[in-house]
């Protein structure tokens, strides 16, 4: 039995804690509760928002969501990325050619407190000496003990980074902390020509750091409805946001802190074609430019040096992208430091050289394999900018690592789903990718929660990045998504992954969001009540025996549905009188007894507590299902990995069955709770209708 079989390295999601789908509201007992309480107009109002979007944005059946997010750029750069001012384009996809004298806008503002910024001056000779110094083979990453002789750092970030302090003192123990430990950003690309030609719709709505995915689904009777999935992230960048702005939002804030013994990682996650490479490609160059600026100005004469390395992980193996895809090996040294044996690391001191290296690596990545793009989306490309420092100004000794910035262009996330492919290699690759993406998520979460144990052994990717997960580190995740209706499933998977990374974060917004959403719902209960619907709308079969013979005592009202109107492609709330008929055509109608204000108040309080209880129940249930799905998915993945001669599949299957039966027990318990809840609901309704 392979030990990995027991390792729960990840929890990819099938549901989302913060999704409040209109459909869910309708179909869930929450929604039925609103109806039972006569609050279905709340559903109506939430739907009317959709109505507006579809009406306003689309016309003639085309749904194009209007993004109200502030446009960072002139708005004319949807497909053409503007180059850095003054730069002639040399890089594809928006990476502008830069000279060492041109620095990204914004950094000066960021460090406006740095009063000692000097005007352009010559770089000290130690930095000039080598424009391309192939420095080492077998670089050892991140030996904390060698970091400028600093003491062990606390895991907690504290205080603002003291750039000025750093200038004059190498014993400054202040840690950079005004930059969040983890930042999750979503970037939406524009619809591409292919999607436009296929008349695919833009289903992504963005507004500030909020976004919604409007997923069209089919009911069993084949009518369409739209499910709205809402998310909140640290930043949501729409299709009008330029690469410059992406840099400013993501990497720029972490550049200064890598001079302070911090390792930072920026990675792009998303399905193939969602814009990961487009997003990641310009970032290292922009970051190098700012790093060099800091080295040459703020930290000049302090012996800092910049090194570049570029490699990829493909099928669990490492290849050097700056040395003709030479195979690399990962080793742990005596101090448990990860060392990539054979990796070329280049010392650089000007932006042009870095640009050449990046272009060379990118070219090697795509031409080094047979089906270029196809294969590039199956590999993780890692570009590292390492800051080192010469020991006491002595250039004959290897410089000591100070900080590092890693850029990871991850394999297409959908590749992890290739585990069902018939081809064994594809399945194994898919399993490997899946494993690494799950492991990455786990490491980031552990990192963000200041956990002592970081499960970096979960995959080659996280092992390689081990030193980026220990000590003082920062992570920026950029989730790239396609706006098209045809990609909704992958888009939702990407957003759920991002949300799971964020949701357990101490600084995460999700808990707050759930709270405020609940709050909104509660506040809404104070608006006037509308007619009450039948109890069986929300309690299901168990009520059948009780309602026998009581047909005359309640309203019959069809559950409101969001029906797509064939004519105008809008969503209508079907609550007309014609809908109040039972299936036998008989109209059920009864006036509501008058209700006193006091009763309304009581009812509201009861509703509040019952609603809360039900929310807890639904959340608990959802969590159970999520966990089950995670386990099944992970185990399936491991089954694929285990499908090797000599491995005992039976053990895995037994284990899987045990887990599933445990989960089934959990779900049974939830069902019992639900039955209890239904009984209480009935009591509540009886009291309410007797005019308590
Ligand atoms: N924000 C954007 N604005 C304009 N074009 C974009 C944007 N994002 C991506 N594109 C374009 O979409 C196409 C696919 O993007 P890209 O190659 O970056 O996807 P990817 O996620 O890296 O795919 P893979 O996983 O296969 O490597 C490219 O032609 C790219 O130029």
Automatic annotation (TrEMBL):
Residues 588-598 have a biased composition (Basic and acidic residues). One of its GO terms (biological process) is microtubule depolymerization. One of its GO terms (cellular component) is microtubule. SUPFAM superfamilies: P-loop containing nucleoside triphosphate hydrolases (SSF52540). Gene3D superfamilies: Kinesin motor domain. The keyword Oxidoreductase does not apply. Belongs to the TRAFAC class myosin-kinesin ATPase superfamily. Kinesin family. KIN-13 subfamily. This is Kinesin-like protein. It comes from Lithospermum erythrorhizon (Purple gromwell). The lineage of its organism: Eukaryota, Viridiplantae, Streptophyta, Embryophyta, Tracheophyta.
